[in-house]
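Bug #77: duplicate submission created two jobs. Keeping one. Sequence:
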Amino acid sequence: MSPTAPAASTLLTYGALGALLWGGAMDLAIAGTAVLAIRAGAASLDTLVLQITELHQESLFVADFERLCREAEIRAIPVGGRALPERLREVRFEKISFTYPGSGSDEPKPTLREVSLAFPAGKIIALVGENGSGKSTLVKLLAGLYLPDEGGGTICWDDVDAHTADRDQVFGRVALMSQDFYHWPFTFRVNVGIGQPGQTIDDKAVQNAAGFAGADRVLDDLPRGLGTLLARGYRGGHQISGGQWQRIGIARAKYRQAEILIVDEPTSALDAIAEQRVFDQIRALAATTGQTIVLITHRLHSVRHADLIHVLKDGRVAESGTFEELMDTATGTGDFREAYLMQAATFDDTIPAQPAGDHDVLRAEDHA
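Kept job's structure:
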């Protein structure tokens, strides 16, 4: 349709009304009513078009959801491979190199270069380093989302090579709580219970996971509890903040009950008190359940109690050890110690004393 067609039809309609009014064939009151009716009809048509567009968008969402369910059913079929050990001792990275595919004619640069380190079972292992040092890529390799480059080293679950391991078992052993996780437009119950997609959601387990992550306070404020829809724009939907979503993400990872829990910057949107609570709960989880915790954070004070700290720099392991070993000037490279002391220095400055004003002098004289 030509862009001028609506304007031409409107002009023609009003012109016809004017001609009828001028010729005396239509009363002024009737002409005014006709104008109002035309405007109301045009507004209704605009609303109808918008609603049809929104309905089409919703139908696409439903179609995507059905496709997701079908793919999930297909994904649940075992793909085969070697079984992982029933009781894991450690996951070892042996000279791992990884390169993301490049674009155009640019030669892609390796993100990880011959990285060798270990993740002992039942321990808290911290990964620290500057942005771009390869921490997130490393944990994605650990979670089985990526495999090393061809000939780029081996990831061993005890004595089982990740290349030949049963993929379903690898995925089932790991829970990943990343910085950017998907906010499903579903209820609170489903957003936590989706951590175990192949099982019926247990409300008691959802509440326990929420309590672990501090999301129980979020749950208490929701109008329909576990059944509250966390999506604004839908009937009965409720909007929550970024920090509240982060607590739900931690609860989702906890609900998964995986052997290895990876938390990638889990407290970046939390306040200081909530952050300390999460770290205390993470340490308690490792101590009471024997779950392996892999912690990625830029806040180095939170890794003081880690059993092992791996420091990455430019895609390589700069140093590894306990907190005491890395802070010892006689050992290590000093990369961790320098970064830790730099962060600690920001809390060393004392608040300057306020100079006494005239009002303070007057108050002292009144009390004398």
